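task queued by scheduler; priority normal; single chain, no ligands, no partner chains; default sampling; output format set to structure tokens
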Amino acid sequence: MPQKPSVWTGLDALGADRASVLAGRRVGVLCHPASVTADLTHVVDRLIQLGVQVLRLFGPEHGVRGEAQDMAGVEGGRDPRTGIPVTSLYGSAFESLTPTESDLDGIDVLVVDLQDIGSRFYTYVWTMGLAMKAAAAKRVAVVVLDRPNPLGGLAIEGGTVSCGYESFVGLGSVPVRHGLTIGEISRLIAAGMPWGTPPFDRPLDVDLTVVAMRGWRRDMTFDHTGLPWVLPSPNMPTLDTAFVYPGMCLVEGTNLSEGRGLTRPFEMVGAPFLDGDRLARDLAALELSGTRFRPLSFRPTFHKFGGQSCGGLQVHVTDRTTFRPHLTGLALLAAARAQAPDEFRWRTEPYEFISHPIAIDLLNGTDAIRLAIEAAATPGDAIGELAARFAPFEREFAERRRPALLY
């Protein structure tokens, strides 16, 4: 028998006794495939069951039904299941990420129900933020249905986003691993980030309601909730993937394969020019906490090095409480670069609609981390310096986020 959930999502709470917040109002819904109840009913179907008038759907990256791959533009149209008009918030230009004034015509309230992953790189929170800003300008209310941070709500890791390095993988000054739920991030955005960068450095005049979860605690990871895991994007198949993502997503800023085209993306990393055994030994020598590295060979079916044999490794998390995914990802990049300095490259192609700064600097929110890796004599030297660099902001953010916390 399936485990009875110990946590109610905001959607489950809405269906139980909070539907009055939408009574008599014309609704738009920002959602994706993981926007489901504990019994796997999609948010749109649940709202219709509750008698809510749903006028329009808004799709983030990958689309309302999650069919598109990363950085693939998505068209609007009509939802094939319900026939409701769909506005895509991920097209071919940065401007497509924000609803237009006409997109919000006739809508009284925008419902946001998105399963986030707990990393600054994951774009759904920034889609929500841009939609909140557009809703505020149009005088449309926003209701966020909260969901668990799969990585838990305690650990904080990584640095800030510096001015000039804002992008769709970092539109606000939060750490790479922030320990917030999407509802808490909406409160942070609404209040403004006075220590941050545009576009969320000032308070929003927005009518915001967060329908909180019930039963969630900050020490809970997703597997403690009893809720079903539904892929929130095509390359996020498991909770294991989510745990390594705050570090392994950095591979997107290089010419290494991050494992797209495999069954365990982000957990498997490599390239034709890498020796996986040597890479695993070099990383093991750094004694990174909570993880082990298994050398392997793989052949992606698509994306980088599609059809080619790659040497590399799989990241196995052995202790989630001590594992530092972001630092581990940086260590992997430093070790790969040290092993193959002539073949390793930072990605220079446009990334999330931006050509400059380059992708790795957008992901890191600064060029200082890349420069530290390049200047270090050894990967160990680089990781020691970076861990010390991040610590002050991690402590500072832990205090600054307190007013936004709901649990």
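post-processing summary
- The chain has two domains: 10-230, 239-394.
- The longest strand covers residues 291-298.
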